[in-house]
Recover the amino acids of this structure.
């Protein structure tokens, strides 16, 4: 199979208007992926599926990722020469910037015909609140149907052109998206006989005030 | 049952086991099997005379013919199925007739994780069962939520919505544990009174037989628990 860079170059050559970025994975698995332009994602996916050298006819997995807003501190080092002729000083300047969060969906593609894979593609929403629509790839790979519904249920990514976008795990009346980082779960920690860690902290709110308990030892 | 020494008294107060003098003060309009001691009864039995009460006979018959609801939720259900197979053979205890309809079932074995999405259906099935009915919470999940207790979608024990008679710990419990739980339930049924102030729950019309079915809310079940059935134990952490 071609390397991911070759695939990216062919995609860019075939679709000059589309934005295709390489997302490298620094881990030992080195499973690099392609971040696709959401506006052209359907055309790019059809190309990946039908290209005779790739024929990625099987989408094995669809995953959602929540990337919250992240504060990044950039450290810039500038060398200031000492006017007295001594050692030059190194001045560190820290600037913080806010990297806006987004919701991401990851597709793992394999080729049953040519026995190769995976090729991993990603799509990202513009933000986490109101612009959370991405094109559905269910028209390209039928296997994405339930998994995109699950991503919609748990992350709140809305897939346009999905044939049947409903919640799949939680009930229809449910309003939250439980796998998001800012999900607030219902407070039902009133009875925790073996609480520890974060559960113990949540359980404390249900305990009687400490004044009511007698002192154990003088 | 043939060895008289093997019959140990049950924790429940069976009327025949206590001498007549100790029963004098309590209001018991139905002196079960007469006011004779166990030893006297055993002596009679050796001579071929069986003395019993209608209450005991009724409990004996019911306890040896418990029809469970054919209903499984998770991996505990596999153990429940195994308990019904020839190897473990729940038929030895008269509970092999798993009924596919709640209208014909005496026992609901809540075998597995009760998700919040499934909880209304479990309560609805319980409401559809006729009295007298019993509930076994099988496994850690049905008791408390088990390993999924802190999940957003798992009910922290079915006893938050319906009364539970027998709790069987385990993850999942072995079929032998389920059989032991069934034997405990049989002992409970045999000890139940039909009349008097401590009569069984199903004989008292003021005790509820049906329980409110929770509804799906925007964030959780509404209500999240039935406070008439369940409240957190008074001394949390001192279990």
């Amino acid at each position: 199979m071609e390397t991911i860079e070759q695939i990216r170059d062919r995609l860019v050559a075939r679709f000059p208007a589309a934005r295709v970025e390489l997302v490298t994975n620094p881990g030992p698995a080195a499973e690099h992926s392609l971040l696709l332009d959401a506006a052209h994602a359907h055309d790019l996916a059809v190309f990946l599926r039908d290209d005779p050298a790739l024929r990625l006819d099987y989408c094995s997995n669809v995953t959602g990722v929540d990337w919250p807003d992240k504060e990044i501190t950039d450290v810039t080092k500038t060398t200031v020469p000492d006017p007295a002729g001594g050692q030059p000083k190194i001045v560190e300047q820290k600037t913080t910037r806010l990297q806006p969060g987004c919701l991401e969906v990851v597709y793992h593609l394999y080729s049953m015909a040519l026995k190769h894979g995976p090729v991993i593609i990603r799509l990202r929403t513009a933000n986490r609140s109101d612009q959370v629509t991405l094109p559905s790839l269910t028209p390209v790979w039928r296997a994405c149907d339930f998994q995109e519904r699950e991503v919609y249920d748990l992350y709140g990514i809305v897939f346009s052109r999905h044939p049947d976008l409903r919640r799949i795990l939680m009930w229809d009346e449910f309003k939250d998206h439980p796998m998001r980082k800012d999900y607030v779960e219902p407070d039902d920690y009133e009875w925790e006989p073996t609480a520890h860690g974060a559960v113990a902290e949540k359980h404390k709110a249900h305990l009687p005030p400490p004044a009511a308990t007698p002192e154990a030892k003088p | 049952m043939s060895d008289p020494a093997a019959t140990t008294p049950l924790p429940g107060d069976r009327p025949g086991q206590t001498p007549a003098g100790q029963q004098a003060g309590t209001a018991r309009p139905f002196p079960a099997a007469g006011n004779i001691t166990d030893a006297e009864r055993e002596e009679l039995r050796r001579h071929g005379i069986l003395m019993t009460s209608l209450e005991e006979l009724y409990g004996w018959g019911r306890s040896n013919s418990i029809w469970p609801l054919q209903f499984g939720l998770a991996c505990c259900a596999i153990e429940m199925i195994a308990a019904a197979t020839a190897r473990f053979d729940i038929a030895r205890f008269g509970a092999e007739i798993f009924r596919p309809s709640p209208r014909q079932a005496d026992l609901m074995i809540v075998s597995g994780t009760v998700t919040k999405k499934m909880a209304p259906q479990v309560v609805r099935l319980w409401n559809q069962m006729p009295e007298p009915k019993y509930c076994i919470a099988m496994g850690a999940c049905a008791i408390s939520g088990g390993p999924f207790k802190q999940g957003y979608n798992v009910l922290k024990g079915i006893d938050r919505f319906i009364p539970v008679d027998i709790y069987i710990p385990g993850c999942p419990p072995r079929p032998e544990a389920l059989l032991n739980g069934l034997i405990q339930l049989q002992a409970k049924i045999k000890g139940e009174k039909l009349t008097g102030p401590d009569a069984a729950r199903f004989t008292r019309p003021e005790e509820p037989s049906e329980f409110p079915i929770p509804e799906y809310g925007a964030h959780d079940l509404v209500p999240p628990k039935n406070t008439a059935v369940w409240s957190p134990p008074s001394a949390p952490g001192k279990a």
